């Protein structure tokens, strides 16, 4: 694999961890809308409707705190090209002693400004 692909893989893993840190914050909507998401992003969570960027405030209305802790396991990155990639993984998370086990997948695209933006995110319960 070319060295540039290694850097892209590292960037995408870092972005996904930033996404999860944001999702577990008290108010993720502003960070998602302003910094992480492409204007046409979609987010798919178990037992929820499809969430678009213009629905973030409503979907993540306070108080919102999905998990106390999380761990991404079996992380795999597919570099689609120099400006796009998909990351898949297993999620092990908990909140208040309840376990959350799922698989996750996100597709990221790099804009002309060089920043990675979330195109789509999906979680599937195991």
UniProtKB/TrEMBL annotation:
<dbReference type="Pfam" id="PF14534">
    <property type="entry name" value="DUF4440"/>
</dbReference>
<feature type="domain" description="DUF4440">
    <location>
        <begin position="12"/>
        <end position="118"/>
    </location>
</feature>
<dbReference type="InterPro" id="IPR032710">
    <property type="entry name" value="NTF2-like_dom_sf"/>
</dbReference>
<dbReference type="InterPro" id="IPR027843">
    <property type="entry name" value="DUF4440"/>
</dbReference>
<protein>
    <recommendedName>
        <fullName>DUF4440 domain-containing protein</fullName>
    </recommendedName>
</protein>
């Amino acid at each position: 694999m070319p060295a540039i692909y290694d850097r892209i893989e590292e960037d995408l893993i870092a972005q996904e961890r930033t996404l999860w840190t944001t999702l577990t914050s008290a108010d993720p909507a502003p960070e998602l809308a302003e910094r992480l998401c492409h204007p046409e992003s979609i987010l798919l969570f178990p037992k929820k409707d499809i969430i678009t960027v213009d629905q973030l405030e409503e979907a993540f209305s306070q108080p919102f705190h999905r998990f106390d802790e999380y761990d991404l396991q079996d992380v795999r990155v597919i570099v689609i090209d120099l400006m796009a990639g998909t990351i898949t993984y297993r999620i092990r998370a908990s909140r208040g002693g309840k376990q959350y086990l799922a698989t996750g997948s996100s597709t990221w695209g790099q804009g002309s400004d060089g920043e990675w933006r979330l195109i789509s995110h999906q979680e599937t319960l195991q």
